[in-house]
Amino acid sequence: MVRIDPLILRARRLRLRRIVPQAVSRRVRRLWAVLRRQWRRSLQFRVVGITLSLSAALVLAFSYTVASLISNGVLQNRIDQTTVNVGAGAAYATQELTGFTQLDDPSLPTAANKIAVTLQAKLSNVAAEVVMLRRAGNLNVSWPKLKNADIMDSPQVNRMRSLVTGLKPGTYQQIATLDIGDGPKKYLVMGTPVALGSEPLELYYIVPLQAEDELIQFTGVVVTGTGIALVALLALIAAMMTRLVVTPVRVAARTAQRLSAGLLDQRMVVRGEDDLARLAAAFNQMAANLQRQIVRLEEMSRLQRRFTSDVSHELRTPLTTVRMAADLLFSSRDEFEPAAARSAELLQAELDRFEGLLTDLLEISRFDAGFAALDAEPTDLVPIVRRVTGQLESLAERCKVELKVVVPDEEVIAEVDPRRVERVLRNLVGNAVEHGEAKPVVVTLAADGSAVAVTVRDHGVGLKPGEEKLVFNRFWRADPSRARQTGGTGLGLSISLEDARLHGGWLEAWGAPGKGAQFRLTLPARNGDRLVSSPLRLVPDDARADEAALIGETP
Amino acid sequence: MDRMRARVLVVDDDPALAEMLGIVLRSEGFLPSFVADGERALAAFRDTRPDIVLLDLMLPGMSGIDVCRSIRAESGVPIVMLTAKSDTVDVVLGLESGADDYVMKPFKPKELVARMRARLRRGEDVAPELLTIGPPGNQITIDVPAHTVMRDGDEVKLTPLEFDLLVALARKPRQVFTREVLLEQVWGYRHAADTRLVNVHVQRLRAKIEPDPEKPEIILTVRGVGYKAGTG
């Protein structure tokens, strides 16, 4: 077997491709792509395509069978008739030639000619030819004298002639295209040997098959035409039938799209009682159920918001009174006894906490109700970071924590809600300072093309494994027994996480016992973009180095 | 005006809060009077002729918004809303119905008093001053000591706050004022506050002085910065 180098094959393919004009190949490819797309997307196209190919194959097989049956029948008829003629002709010729024993008898040609003419006259079809041949030595003679005398020397009938002149006597036949003087035509040639002494004469009947040929061709045209019409009709029927089914399905798809786009009133038209009508009815029922559910949820959400708003008012009014009373007591605490004065101070301080808790609770219930809205605008984050650290400077001093800020020289613009970002950062930095154990707290801001990030690192007690998820739980505390300094509400990180999510951002924590903790806020630079990575690492470099050294890897 | 004994009308349905407000206000030198429901608020307002109104937004009978609207219909007296709602819609609705400023519950007494004093701090400029702004053919004239604004020979009724806002803009016609600067100059806020106060009041002012408030020519918006007075 010859193995063809794949490279050569590829070169051939390339050459072929170059031969086909570029524009044509592009058009063909485009058409192919369109067809493939239609095949994938349109049920109707697929059904019509399958019907078309299956019915075409069926019709092809059927019409081939019919055409060959008809043509065989017609030919057989003529062959049978001619066989009878050949038999009779041979018998007649044998009888007429009984006196002759020598092929070179001078009266033989006249007799042979007479036989040929007589036989021809007996035929119903005048156009048919009868040929008698005698062949011996140099003599190659045929009777009667034909327009095209050497017709039987044509290579087309060679094989039959050799059979006739062969050893086995009998009648042989062949269909051949011959030219007997009026152009090439199809003929049925039948031949048989006529005994004459030691060597036979050859007797041939040449019967034109023009009528049969025309009939066969006509049959072919009719069968082909009928087949094509049938296939086209089947395709049309298939297209119409699928259309009948596909149209409601398409309507259903469109209605479903509208429904999911929020047009809850969309329904399908139910006509009749068939399967499609049942589909439409079921669809409508589903849509109605969905609509009812959605309306109910919306109503619940509205009630929840209303409740939040009402609770807000109902709690805030008495709190205002208490607040003012406490303020009044606090400002005149110098006139009180020590116990009462201290009580006034405690009242004042705890009211601040209470107020903070109330504010946070309301905030988180607003998130829960899905009522929180993002007011994103292009904002420079550098001043926000500086403002937050500035505000917390006094707390840091009280905790003896050094606050370091690392920000880029240029401005860091992102589409964020500045109020929320400031709240998140105040919370993160405040927590870091509180848990910083008098060690430095580092706030880092960085940006890349698609995201901005702030990390807040402290070197306090750190987080135990698993706690980096727990810290975002509501009212979670690292150590319940631990004394609290500023008394956060326990909701700060939960709210921060919600704020980050509202931006489509991330808020994550890392921590290791004894190594401190790091919180990372990552926000997309453009509102609505999806985050894929953060410009800053969650695990600080020094901790990575420690871990790598522990495992024995280079960082 | 006796500024040491400014009269205050407190419209609030919560008796404890009203009483506490009374204690605080009296200690700060105000002369408070009280009304507990919206329907009697207007009558009480007519009786007491207060220098400033403290108005709770949620009231039985008539809503604070309606009270605010009806007081504003007959007087330019400063109105400070007491609101427990931080939802955008409520604050904006209150400001649009005519309130000058708002204080969010729970507030600190000092905060409230500061807001009230800012609204009462008036009549200090007595030097005769006549300002004209607006494009030619559409000018308005402001007589600062007389507190009057004239357009086409007719007087335009402005509340004191709207008047202050207009004067602040008109005194420096070519300067663009940021919302924060206006909050400080007109409302007396030291720190950044709710810039919606400025937006709403500029809209109210435009509705009164602009021939077509949709296409303002006297108070122009400078996109991304703030506002400025239009000149020829």
Automatic annotation (TrEMBL), chain B:
4-aspartylphosphate-modified residues are D56
Residues in Response regulatory domain copies: 7-120
Q: State one molecular function term (GO).
A: phosphorelay response regulator activity
Keyword ATP-binding in the entry? The reply is: no
Q: Name one Pfam family in it.
A: Trans_reg_C
Which residues carry the record's DNA-binding region feature? 128-231
Keyword Cell membrane in annotation: no
The protein's matches in InterPro entries, at most eight in alphabetical order, are given as: CheY-like_superfamily, MtrA_REC, MtrAB_MtrA, OmpR/PhoB-type_DNA-bd, Sig_transdc_resp-reg_C-effctor, Sig_transdc_resp-reg_receiver, WalR-like, WH-like_DNA-bd_sf
Keywords attached to this entry: DNA-binding, Phosphoprotein, Transcription, Transcription regulation, Two-component regulatory system
Instruction: Tell me where in this chain the OmpR/PhoB-type domain is found.
Output: 128-231
Query: Domain of life here?
Result: Bacteria
* GO CC annotations on file: cytosol; protein-DNA complex
Where does the secretion signal sit in this chain? none
| One GO-annotated biological process of the protein | positive regulation of DNA-templated transcription
Q: Which NCBIfam families match?
A: MtrAB_MtrA
Query: What is the name of the protein in this document?
Result: DNA-binding response regulator MtrA
